[in-house]
Amino acid sequence: MSEKRRGRRQARSTGVSGVFNTVNATVYGPVVQIGVANGPVTIHSTDPREAVPVVRPVPGTDLAAPEVFVGRTREIEHLLARLDPEGESGAATAAVVAGMGGVGKTALALRVSATAVTRGWFAGGAVMVDLHGYHPDGGHVRTAAAFGPLLAALGVSRERVPATEPEQAAAYHHLLDALASQGRRVLLVLDNVSSGDQVRDFLPRSAAHRAVVTTRDTLTLPSVRALELDVPEPGEAGEMLERILHGRSPGDPRVGREPAEATRVIEACGRLPLALGIAAAMLADDQALTLAELADELDRSATREEVLRHGEPSIAPVFDLSWRRLQARDPSAARVLPLLVLNPGPGTSTEAAAALADEPVPVVRPRLRRLRQAHLLYRADGHWQMHDLIRSRVRGRTVPGNAEESDPQAALSRLLHHYGHTATAMAGRLTEQPGGQGGPGEPGAAGEPGGAGESAGRGIAEDAYAADRAKAWEWFARERPNLLAAVPMAAVSGHHRLTVDLAETLLGVLDTAHDTLAQTAMARYAVDAAAQLGDAEVHAGTLHRLGSLYTASGRHDRAATAHREALRVCRAAGDRKGEGAASHLLGASLLDAGRLAKAFTAVRQAAHIHRAIGHREGEARALGTLARIHCRTKRYDTAVGVHRQAIGMHQDAGDTRGEGAELNSLGLTLWLAGRKEEAIVAYRRSADVSRTAGHHAAKAAALRNLAMHTGWLGRTEEALAAQQEALETCRSLGDVAGESAALSALPVILSRAMEPRAAVAAQRRSVEACRVAGHRRDEGLALSQLGQVLAMTAGNLGGAIDAHRRAVDIWRDLADRDAEATELKVLAGRLAEAERNGAARRTGEEAVAALNDTGRYAEAVAIEEWLATLPVADHETERAVPPDAPTHMPRVYTTPKGCIGGCLPFSATVGAVVAHFLDGPWWLVTILTVLAAFGWGTCLTSLVFLSAGVFMVCAAWGTWWSAAGLALLLFGAGSLVTGTTEAEPDGRESDRDRQRRQRRQRRP
Questions:
Q1: Residue of 170, 175, 165 lying closest to 208 (CA atoms)
Q2: Which whole number is the average pLDDT over 21-30?
Q3: Which of 125, 595, 792, 824 lies at a C-alpha separation of 20 to 30 Å from 104?
């Protein structure tokens, strides 16, 4: 039995028909469990790290929602002094507000932050993050999961937010650094923090920015002293109770008329602001209720066990009394409150609440307002939310009445279907074309094509289309935490079809938002749910989606595992077409992992299957991958033939997308085969086909290769035009990785145009663009390219070594072992060129380990053989090379060449003096001596000496000058031999010279 099958657990029935826990927590990660015990529904997360962060801007006091806020003058002044940009320099950037739950920490932080925003202290933005550190379900927000939403809240466009958590963290801190350098300060309100580890990585590194942290515990943060917030003084608590009551019932005299009884109520509430709000709501709801009666009821509700809970005054007495009164006065509103706890996200929209209650929105909305008036709910970001302490008290409550209406499982099912149907509808708005099914530009029902009526109608349709898209994006942004939590909830509650459909919808939206991390999580749940459906096609499709996500993040072994499982599913179901597709995708992932033999077998099998069933497009795609495998094994002629066969099949099938992509691959193969002009033609055809068909991503890829390789050939104008078009296309698509690749073509163009300094500067700009955007993977690729440019163009080995080392660090941070292995190979070679053999040996050993880990055994053996050739010296001392010092390969002189280089210039000088006294051509010998001093080892000097020697031997044979001519011939031959033993400073050496140098150095 496979590990996946062994890990999958069939949980016991929850007591409700059709609800089972079948999610494999060990394989697919954190899950949410649902069970029924003694009637009420209970929900908790098995992994407390998987709560979804909610980030929202902090408005100024003029825009903030009105709220009752009393006192806290000293605390406000203290926090404002910490946030003041003119305050004490060098002070800690974080201010911590600590206190018990419900004491008003969040209200204080928001009041101070709103005041600071109104004063204009934070031009870079002010945002609040609820980290759910004390959620009753045990779930809290992982630090890394909040970086993406924070970037979006700070103004980074959706397309520019990196896909992985490490990249998002880097982009977050780079953004804060950039804003600090611009004088745009940022304020972070980090709410509900349970530990220092949860918040430490959020804290700004620049002293310009500020953070306010709220917590119930003592946090260990550097150079930060917490402000301990206690319950209000009795006078402030009384004013708070009176003001809340007056807000609900203007002019109510009870608090002022019965001060002694008001004090009893305040003390029964523990002076806790949260409890005081509920007590005031009960008084406002019942004008006949006296403060004495309320105090007596609170005293009876309290028990010794509930007075203190974890060091906090309990909300239990006041809540229990409020709950009983709510049941008696408004049972319909009371019935809604426990259902809201079923929502897996942090807040519930009115529409979602209506789905839970199985009532129309107009009916449910007044009930929610009633709960808000009772201070059991509050409104934030368009959602109904409740305090953690209230949530813990609500859980398990039931209201007598219609059992079907209050059934938690039925309510949960209605909620999940609401999310599924609404998400599908909103996703449709993002993908549909303006003007309906006809798409943009087609004639409407009225007016002549191209006429004014059509133009006006199209304009209205496009405006409506843009508005619909904007509303859809707003909905997804607002409901994202609920949707991401709904997928695992649907999975564990047995809604397998809904799980797959909702996950697929979110995968499309998240793909547009470049959120690979969330995509992978959704794909895992979809795979497990599809397995429960028994639909082989759906199951294989979800596995392929998961595999493609692993491939995008560089985890090729995991991708191969997913595609291999899909192949097994298709074979078991007898789905030949699916089997061919799965075999092809498996081969492609094995190719990416460097396992060429297994990749060839899988792809060849895919081609045979597609041919047998007559699926021409599938066969063409498989042949294209086979050609890539032939190319990797340097069978270029075979690869070219297979590429051309695949292109013909794409053309016969009318598959322009496949044709364009295959032409681009053909161009690369031709280039590697040395057929450079044919490669350029293939790139041009690929760009033209893709441009005509509107396949912009394929066009940009072809243009990048065209720019790179025409640049290598010295066709600067054509290369720059192609590079600019590729750059503009990638920017229009929001393709940051493609944009970085297009930028990396510019240094190659400039280097071949004999502008090495401009080439290095351009590559550095490419690295910086990736770094600022936080795209770590693209930054690693750009650094690797920078190392190549520095070494081969500028002769700067020190800078090249530094760039390659930085790239290695990035690959290690991203856990991309395959890229790390390749980078270590290059770095070892650069170190050897710089005669840093000890470091080269250590780096080579690391490369061998990485290559073995990724299955690239042949390359590992080659590196080991190369390591054996490195010289070993006793007590070897490494020679430090400054990163910006121009270093070149040392010249290697053997004894004959050293004799020629040392003796002949002196001999020529003596010969010039003798020639002067003998009335010979002393001037010629003098000129040649000068050339010898300044041009030894160059091709031009060698030719001059050889020509002069031949001339003197032929013209003065039999005299002393013929002997001088023979010396000049020997001198020129020595200079020519020396010049061929090293690459020219700009790295432009012939293929023959390169092969000779590589054989000598045996570089990896």
A1: 175
A2: 34
A3: 125
Which phi and psi (to 5°) does residue 35 adopt?
Answer: -145, 160
d(CA 790, CA 792): 6
Question: From CA 268, how far away is CA 321, in angstroms rounded?
Answer: 12
Q: Which residue matches tokens 């191969």?
A: 560
Rg of the chain in Å (alpha carbons): 37
Tell me yes or no: is domain 54-228 CATH 3.40.50.300: yes
- Give the Cα-Cα-Cα angle 453, 454, 456 (nearest 5 degrees): 65
Residue 703 has pLDDT above 70, yes or no: yes
- What's the CA gap between 7 and 28, in Å, rounded? 10
Band the pLDDT of 321: cuts 50, 70, 90: confident
- Torsion over CA: 663, 664, 669, 670 (sign): positive
DSSP string of 28-84, one letter each residue? H---EEEEESSSSEEEEES-TTBBPPEEEE---TTTSPP------HHHHHHHHHHH-
What distance in Å separates the CA atoms of residue 631 and residue 376, rounded to the nearest whole number?
67
Please provide the DSSP assignment of 886-949 as one string: -B-PPP---HHHHHHHHHHHHHHHHHHHHHHHTTS-HHHHHHHHHHHHHHTT-HHHHHHHHHHH
What totals of helices (H) and strands (E) does the chain contain, helices first? 45, 12
Domain boundaries, given as residue ranges, for the chain: 3-42, 54-228, 895-981
Which pLDDT does position 226 carry in this prediction? 77
Q: Which of 890, 922, 908 is nearest to 974 (CA)?
A: 908
* Helix, strand, coil distribution of the chain in percent, nearest 5: 65, 5, 30
pLDDT band at 978 (very low <50, low <70, confident <90, very high): low
pLDDT at 511 over 70: no
Quickly list DSSP for 799-822: HHHHHHHHHHHHHHHTT-HHHHHH
Report d(CA 707, CA 723) in Å as an integer. 5
Least reliable range by pLDDT among 27-31, 57-61, 106-110, 261-265: 27-31
Q: What are phi and psi of 842, to 5 degrees?
A: -65, -40
The share of the chain scoring above pLDDT 90, in percent, equals: 18
Distance, CA of 737 to chain centre: 11
Question: Model's pTM, two decimal places?
Answer: 0.64
Mean pLDDT of 298-308: 52
C-alpha span between 244 and 585 (Å, rounded): 64
Check residue 207 and report its DSSP letter. T
Contact 728, 744 (CB under 8 A): no
Give the pLDDT confidence score for residue 896 in this predicted structure. 36
d(CA 956, CA 254): 131
Query: To 10 degrees, the CA torsion angle through 304, 305, 306, 307?
Result: 50
Rounded Cα distance between 685 and 459, Å, is: 35
Query: Residues 451-478: pLDDT tens digits?
Result: 444 444 445 555 666 778 888 888 988 8
Q: What are the start-end ranges of the E strands in 448-549?
A: none
